[in-house]
Amino acid sequence: MDDPQMALYGIKVMLNNGFKESEDLFNEYKNRSPLMSAGASFVQFLHALMTFEEDQLQEAAAALKQTERQCTHNQDGLLKAFTNRLMQRTVHESAVLLENRLQKQVIIADCQLYQAVLTFVNQELSGYVRGGWILRRAWKIYEKTYIEIKNLHDRRVFASKRGQSGAFEHKQDSLTRTVSAPALMHLDLDEVPSQEVLGRLMGAISFGYGIFQLCISLMPPNVLRLIQYLGFEGDRDLGLRSLVVASKSTDMKAPLASLALLWYHTVVRPFFSLDGGNVEGGVMEALSILHEKKEMYPNSALFLFFHGRVLRLQCKVVKSLVAYNKALTAAKDQREIQLICLYEIGWCNLLQLKWSEAKVAFVRLKEESRWSRCYYAYLAAVCLGALGQSEESYQVFCSIPGLVKRKNNQIEIFVAKRAERVIAGELPLSEDEAVLLGLELLFLWNALSTCSQDELHIIETELSKQTQERLMPLAQLLQGAVYTCLRAYSKAIQVNNSFRCVS
User: Fold this and answer.
1) Are 471 and 432 in contact (CB under 8 A)?
2) Is the separation of the CB atoms in 121 and 57 below 8 Å?
3) Which helix (H) or strand (E) holds 109?
4) What is the rounded CA–CA span in Å between residue 227 and residue 235?
5) Residues 232 and 135: beta-carbon distance below 8 Å
6) Tell me, what DSSP letter sits at residue 61?
7) In degrees to the nearest 10, what's the CA dihedral of 312, 315, 319, 322?
């Protein structure tokens, strides 16, 4: 088994719930080649990103820097280039040297991209500046390497089609139109790596390049203008096409590209309302990917998780819960994946107004998660209040201000203000008030559109029970949203008019 095959095998093991086995494999062979070192540092990076533990983040950053140093060591300098000119190499040796150089360039760009992500995690101004500088360096390498590999790949494809009727059309994308062709085009075809190798390298560069393009394209317009001023591009369609290319390659990041596409279609598209009010906009694409990967990853916790996301977007909340619980069981040795499953389980129960089951999930998240504990505390407090456990609910509300860590985080700002209002009242919430706060969350997180018709009717019934005058404006706002989801537009307009009169 050569290094590319072993690296791909290691990633497949990881995605089939073998995080420890994958980590052991990469660590055993990480000094054998830059590719295996890249695999080891990526597994460490992914683990750190899921735990948010400071020591894990630092170790991952150190591992990425070590991989980068391994790639830059013995890179071609002036003396090396002069030596290569004097040495007589076979065409096969020249092709292997070119393959290794391009592979190292891809790994260096990936390492810098991951380092930038780790820098942004700290959410400090100095970190943003440093991260932006690292991103710019990564982009420059992606830009240069992408065009080199694409042109070489197109040459190979053209050579294989030359005997067929008709001329081969060389297609360009937004990058190849703006970046000049590299000097590699003067090489004899025998000195160019094989089509199989170039296909793998095309997949390797397309993963990071596609993620880069996709993420930049999702930035707010004011941030996007600044990014474009710094020399970055954000072409969403090109980013998606690049990820598709990566997912169909034999590179070790092919399975990760599939997960990135699932993340885009099931999380990004509904969260950013890229399809308007249609939360099922990316369902067909996601189902196609899941069907294609089902045989290879039958019990993968991550693929089961995304299956649950698809079911939830289809308003099949009960079936979605089944999928999430399967993913939770499959991830029994992977605490971080368990936590993201618990989050979705909590929300699915919240959609069904099953406060007790939702409380169990959010309490565990509050205790075990290192991401925004005040947010999970707020969710737990609301569930406790809706269950009539007002004293326990009030105590949790009182703990929320002390759990706020990031003053610039909009979620934490929101829950802190809500908690302060409860604390200022110096009295526990009533059960009706807590239920209303829970339903408010469904509205704010655009979750009502993923409820079934029966679930929406249950929520509407709960809202109609609200009689306290000071709660009526919020109750009527939520009623209008529910009627809109039910497509009872005349009732929604009627409630909206009543809401205006009250407010």
Assistant:
1) yes
2) yes
3) helix 91-121
4) 13
5) yes
6) H
7) 30
DSSP state of 219: S
d(CA 282, CA 264): 8
What would the 3-class secondary structure string for 199-237 be?
Answer: HHHHHHHHHHHHHHHHHHHCCCHHHHHHHHHCCCCCCHH
What pLDDT, in 10s, does the model give residues 328-342? Answer: 999 987 888 899 999
| Structure-token pair, residue 413 | 């700002």
Percent of the chain with pLDDT over 70: 86
- 0.90 exceeded by pTM: no
Give yes or no for a contact between 97 and 184, defined as CB atoms under 8 angstroms apart: no
Place of tokens 């456990």: 389
Q: Can you list the positions of beta strands (E) in 203-338?
A: none
**Crossing angle (nearest 10°) for helices 283-293 and 254-263:** 150
Rounded to an integer, what distance in angstroms lies between the CA atom of residue 121 and that of residue 58? Answer: 11
- DSSP letters along 88-106, please? ---HHHHHHHHHHHHHHHH
Nearest Cα neighbor of 305 from 281, 280, 332, 328 is 328
* Whole-angstrom distance, CA of residue 88 vs CA of residue 146: 28
pLDDT given at position 10: 95
d(CA 53, CA 55): 6
- 109 Cβ neighbours under 8 A, 6+ residues apart: 138, 141, 142, 145, 205, 208
**DSSP for residue 297:** S
SS3 of residue 183 by DSSP? helix
- Evaluated on CA atoms 40, 43, 46, 52, the torsion sign reads negative
Q: Which of 16, 20, 27 is nearest to 7 (CA)?
A: 27
Give yes or no for residue 177 having a pLDDT over 80.
no
Nearest residue to 123 (alpha-carbon basis) of 328, 329, 408, 398: 408
d(CA 293, CA 285) in angstroms, rounded, equals 13
For residues 10 and 43, give the distance between their C-alpha atoms in angstroms, rounded to a whole number.
10
Give how far Cα 396 sits from Cα of 216, 403, 420, Å: 38, 11, 12
Task: Give the distance, in angstroms, between the CA of residue 72 and the centroid of all CA atoms in the same chain.
Answer: 29
pLDDT tens digits, one per residue of 86-140: 455 576 677 888 899 999 999 999 999 999 888 877 655 566 677 778 888 898 9
Residue 116: both structure tokens together: 């930038």
282-333 pLDDT per residue, tens: 899 999 999 999 999 999 999 999 999 999 999 999 999 999 999 999 998 7
CA distances from 496 to 450, 471, 480 (A): 22, 15, 6
